UniProtKB/TrEMBL annotation:
Residues 312-350 are annotated as: Disordered. GO terms for cellular component: tRNA-splicing ligase complex. Belongs to the FAM98 family. It comes from Delphinapterus leucas. The gene is FAM98C. It holds the Pfam family DUF2465. InterPro entries: FAM98. Coiled coil: none annotated. This is Protein FAM98C. It comes from the Eukaryota.
Amino acid sequence: MEGAEAEEREWAAVARDLLALGYEGFSGSASLGTSCPDFRALCARLAAELATLGALERQREEGTEALSAGSVPEEEFLRQLAGLLRELHCPDRKLCGGNCGASLQEPGVRLRLLRFLCSEVQAARLLRLQSRLDPSPEQSGVEGAEEGSGLVQEMVLTLQALGLPRPMPGTPASQLLRDLHAKIVELLPSLPAGSLKPLLSYPLDAPRWEALESLYQSLRDQYCCRRCLLLKRLDLTTSAFHWSDRAEAQGEAMKAVLIPIREALTPESDVSIAHVLAARADLSRLVPATSKTARRGTCCAIHKVLMGSVPDRGGRPNELEAPMPSWQSRREDRGGQKAGRQCWGRKKKK
């Protein structure tokens, strides 16, 4: 009974979402399955709005319908639906699995399908509204991006690592991403087995996301504190070079070299949770600093220079003996009386 009540509440929530989006008359027939024409029409209308809002790149380029709601076989509808979900990068494994038709026979899976399509329509509407409110003109691809921006730098490094040429001006972002995907798929078989295994292998639910965010914030604050300390030490060290007499003549030249380097060093860290999610398992392998592999990149000629004899500066308390007091002869004082003795005398009578 509890499961049935929970399912009814979920279907009621989907019906409210559909009404909020302006889709009326579908709430009663949405749970009948892919063989129902009303269910197909609902999915087709949601997909058509996504294509109109620009969320479907393939349909916009080819000019075809995302889903056919007419008299098409059920197998064709399921094939189109699977392609639509792949293009939208649906995270549900049952919906994007090999047998989408068998999965949609379950009411809960159909519920997740409608909720996913509704959320995509809501997001597409918000993005369209934001683009209308933004006075700056829309630019496709990488046009208009600053040459020194982080996005362009990351893209250039990615292209260099994959051996791809730099794209021509006006190349759409979708075409560039497809080229990157094709090149990565081509290079994946040449990698050793297990090289792309993620470091974070557990699925993240809401409590784990909160714990990860809390841990990230704590480490970020601690790293910022330590980096502030190191930067303060750097500032004090560089300021000491300006104390000499020679620095008076070379002060401006020193500032011209040091100031650009110092301004690039900020206490804030650019490491985010996205780097944790993108980390691979080989990042956790600890290589000893004295191993042959590590020494290939750190060895230099200075390591072969032998130091000569240096003066012994001590610093070993265990080799020192405790000082003992020395005995001295008693001094004579007070007219022949020996110091340290108490003199006794008679009291005078009053």
